[in-house]
Amino acid sequence: MLVEDLKVYQKLFKLALEVNDLTLNFPKFEMFELGSQLRRSSNSPPANLAEGFSNKHTNIYLESICRAQGEMRETRHHLKMAYHKKYITKNKLDYFLNEYEECAKMLYGLEKSLLKNHKK
């Protein structure tokens, strides 16, 4: 099995691309500020999963999931900031927040499964 086989990885990868495209419409002065932060934080969750995926040390895999969750929270913050600065619509914000919430639930399920199997 590859990390690319995980549904949550696929979803996070797609979201990172969508957020990247979204930031290209930000004002020029935000391209290296909020835009850059959003691009980096949205790319980190799938990258963290890829880094820790299937590591023979379950704790390292669990740590990568925790880092991915933290980066998703950061991305959600930046998206809310973009909305309040009027760079994105409420519909766009809601779409991304809902998608990241679904990913958070998927990661929580993966974490629970790893912990359950690790204790055996």
UniProtKB/TrEMBL annotation:
InterPro entries: 23S_rRNA-intervening_sequence, 23S_rRNA_IVS_sf. Coiled coil: none annotated. Transmembrane segments: none annotated. SUPFAM superfamilies: IVS-encoded protein-like (SSF158446). PANTHER family: FOUR HELIX BUNDLE PROTEIN. This is Four helix bundle protein.
